[in-house]
Amino acid sequence: MADIKRLDKTYIAGTYARFPVQLVSGKGSLAWDEDGKEYIDLGSGIAVNGFGISDEVWLKAVTEQLAKLPHASNLYYTEPCARLAEMLCQRTGMKKVFFGNSGAEANECAIKVARKYAAEKHGPDCYTIVTLVNSFHGRTLTTLSATGQDHYHELYQPLTPGFAHIPAGDLDALKALAKGTKIAAVMIECVQGEGGVVPLSEDFVHSLDAFCKANDVLLVVDEVQTGNGRSGQLYAYMNYGIQPDVVSTAKGLGGGLPIGACLMGEKVQDVFGPGDHGSTFGGNPAACAGGVSILSRIDDQLLAGVRERSRYIFDQLTDAEGVESVSGMGLMIGIKPVKPAREVVSRCIENGVLCLTAKDRVRLLPALNIPMEQLEKAVAVLKAALAE
Ligand SMILES: *Cc1c(COP(=O)(O)O)cnc(C)c1O
Asked: What is the pLDDT of residues 208-237, one digit of tens each?
């Protein structure tokens, strides 16, 4: 580890504050470092390994595809990409899919869809996209501009123009903005992930939805982190009973390989024509074969299991010693500890449990199918770290 750590520090751009762990392998919700130390994984590589590390069914689907045709480009038809798009549309009521390779790219596509739709329908001065304070939408310059957190913006001026931010829950702020500005779209995360694992209220989401419908403003839901079973429903917006115009997703969709998808609803399904957008790797057959394997197994039974595990974690941690509050939805949970979150996470790592932080919270994003016995063990370690 000393050697790899030195290489990494020498040659990798200094953008990551890594934990002092070098992972070499994993299976399901267990991971091992280079000394053979075992960890129970409550982070899933940031909500990516939805069925755990190197899940057998996923591995078979991906390796079979890798042997047949790992890449083709979008000049040709390939089966996994078409099948995954059909599955996504059938499960969501959306009409068309554009595949990219990450959450940021899925959101870039969503923003382009919104801009093109609004310009064609309402004129060239209708381009503003409203997002929420504390949101996170990605690291490309445009998705950074969409992100409603100033500290991400400071170093990268000038940003892409045409974004405005309102506080979550504040519909009046949106109405006030709409008086002087033509609004193309509103973009939300139903549960703000990087912002501290904070769900939006039902009231706010419903009134946003009504506002958007009444004003032909597109409702874009960023399901990069909340999607693919994480919230206890296939997509988090389903917990609110709304039908967005655009949905972006990524992280858990590929089960461990890079993929992003932008789902377009009825209103915007024909916005793009040939040449309007593209990606060399987008719709990659291996990544999509993984996606088909993952999505086909996110069924009612799995989702009931997600909700059951969620209840267990909430029951164990709400009012536990050293805990100020617990927030979240499904298996996307934020714990506000009395002491600094990073200290709690470091202690968990020492004691064989991997978890994450988000702002001042400890963040849990375990595999959707983590065995109860492993979850119980890990929560006991976490509780002890919180109470110290
Ligand atoms: C992680 C995340 C992104 C960015 O995804 P990348 O794959 O890192 O580009 C965008 N939106 C949300 C809500 C996320 O959690």
From this structure: 999 999 999 999 999 999 999 999 999 999
**How much distance in Å is there from the Cα of 107 to the middle of ligand 1?**
8
Per-residue pLDDT of 259-292, as tens digits, reads 999 999 999 999 999 999 999 999 999 999 999 9
Tokens linked to 121: 């329908």
Q: Is the pLDDT confidence value at 244 over 80?
A: yes
Ligand 1 centroid – CA 278 distance (Å)? 19
**Ligand 1 pocket mutation, candidates 194, 329, 356, 359, criterion most atoms within 8 A of CB:** 194
Please name the helix (run of DSSP H) or strand (run of DSSP E) that holds residue 49, with its range, or none.
Answer: none
Q: Is 284 in the pocket of ligand 1 (CB under 6 A)?
A: no
Answer yes or no: is the C-beta of 224 below 6 A from any ligand 1 atom: yes
Residue 61 and residue 293 in contact, taking contact as beta carbons nearer than 8 Å: yes
Q: Where are the alpha helices (DSSP H) in 198-296?
A: 202-215, 285-295
